[in-house]
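Practice set, problem 2.
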Amino acid sequence: MRRTRPRASSSGNPTLADVAARAGVSLATASRVLNDSTRKVGPEHRERVVRAARELNYRTDLSAQAIARGSAPVLALLVSSIDDPYFSAIAEGVAESAHAHGVIVTIAITARDSERELTSVRTIRGQRPRAILISGSRISGNPHTGELLEELRAFTAGGGRTLFLSQSVGGLGAVRPANSTGAQDLGIAVSRLGYRRAAVVTGAAHLESVAERTEGLRRGLATGGGKIALVEGDSFDRSGGYRATRRLIESGRIEEVDVLCAGNDFMAVGAMTALRDSGIQPGRDVAITGFNDIETAADVTPQLTTVRFPLAEIGRRGADLALDPSTPLTEDICVPGEVILRASCPPRTPHRTA
């Protein structure tokens, strides 16, 4: 029986039928090769299909593939911001893992807005990704937590995989920085250097990462008789660090402390600028610390004392787990940090006064 050559698509883009005709195989065989079917295709036919696809410049329709297989070769990553080096480092690790697993990464920006996060998850579910990773601090008293969990559980019930790169919620798995113990270690180190009265410049109190780091720092300082004397909150970014520190300076409260502990390195950079703008020298007139050890922490002057976390490794590990269907995703994995002492927090000399 003579085989009829399928007609090319009217859009001019080659179709799966075009590839099958060029390779001289059935449509089903071409589909199995190009959509990574578990059904085996002989090496000769596979080579013919791959060659035909290359010659025709054929591209797989991810939407059609998602319908056929139940999911697309996509991993969705939700981040709070794209200009924060913390999230870009995590995204780098996620992208490396995704590439190794043969999937692509799509990123949604939540801006630390719980409603926007929920809307993003709902939209992403419709795209049928293989997995969803959610980074960014969880929010205490979040009114959307219940709905978010419903969406994520429905996603996993349909064969999807989901994991937090922040605090675990509702028994779902997580890979995250050990914020509390890292901050406690920083407090102990600062106390051993002779500092006793800290001002904490950090993000909003309802962010769980803020609460974890502040409480950990409090415990660490207490081991040497120190304490947190002041807490000033603002947005969890460079501008927030600048504004919060300016308020401490303008109110005169900066005079009450000997060390300023920022909630993250991005805030610490803003805080250092605010100090300099007021003629106060970071590391000399008042010590300063950060958190996370982003790349610029070692480039600022003075170099920033901070807590180092392997952020790219956290992203990579989380993606590896999410893309491995044989691994249960219920464990809450806390990745330890390391205190990095630098010039912004030198040993306290006798002439320093609180």
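Problem 2, part (b): a different protein.
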Amino acid sequence: MSNTHPILSAQALGFQWPTLDPFLFCVHHNDHYPPGNAQLGPAASLAGRQIGQDFSQKDGWSMYHGEQVPGFPAHPHRGFETVTIARRGLIDHSDSLGAAARFGEGDVQWLTAGRGIVHSEMFPLLQADQPNPCELFQIWLNLPAARKMAAPHFTMFWGQDIPALQAGGVEVSVVAGALNGAPAPLAPPPESWAAQPDADVAIWTLKLAPGARFTLPAAQGQGTRRMLYFFAGTALRVGGHLVDRHAALELDAAAAVELVNGDTAAECLMLQGRPIAEPVAQYGPFVMNTQAEIHQAFSDYQRTRFGGWPWQNEAPHHGPDRGRFARHPGGAEDLPPT
């Protein structure tokens, strides 16, 4: 076990959270949408918002790039993966592979963009008589150079199937990685860095009741880096050190670190992994290793649209009546377990 201070660095949380290799991006969307209208958008005035580019959080919510329904209409990706953890509300996914999904209630979508995919992520407001809260994490996980041009891959993990540990006022949801006491881990997409046996990738969400304690076990691999995001609650002791504001904490991954919660419920997200340790060239939705590869990504997208867009508009949703579902490339559908 390491003898260093367990907190290696601390940064305040803004809209976009700081990340460590192999992660590229992490954002926590927490929108308090009003009741919905007949078009599944907000039954509220959109005056004063920059429609198409609204990140204002006016009245506690944003339209983002949506014009009628909040969300993110069709946009491309290449060279990495998106992991979307839907905590509250619903997300309507559509993509250039022909896959579609409506997911929420703890479901996770894991999308390997690989050599290129176009997708949309819309937030339909189905409840006309009550608010429509929507909360999610979107995490970008890098791909190593050898797998950046892998075939795109669509994966859905239903919330009921995600391994979880509940004990002593603590609930840990294990999206990736293994945790003693939790059921067997889920298999990440085949080309993911998380699928490599020595990558030591873990994605956990933690909920701690007032006064609860939990010890983060030491990482299994050498060279692993770990970030703990304390984003809800008033105070948390981390390895005996008081953290009294929301923060991104880089922890010594070689050490087991005890978390002791204060007098209000607290929540954390933990991301860890062995760094890919390759050059990163990023421009908007493309993440490669060189600027030449970025230029090639733009050229390929302009030429091929990464397979085209098989939907009637740029911001499709799945209507007012559908429940959660996933339709995979090729047409096979599955539903969450009942």
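Answer key, part (b): The longest strand covers residues 23-33. Residues 291-304 form the longest helix (14 residues).
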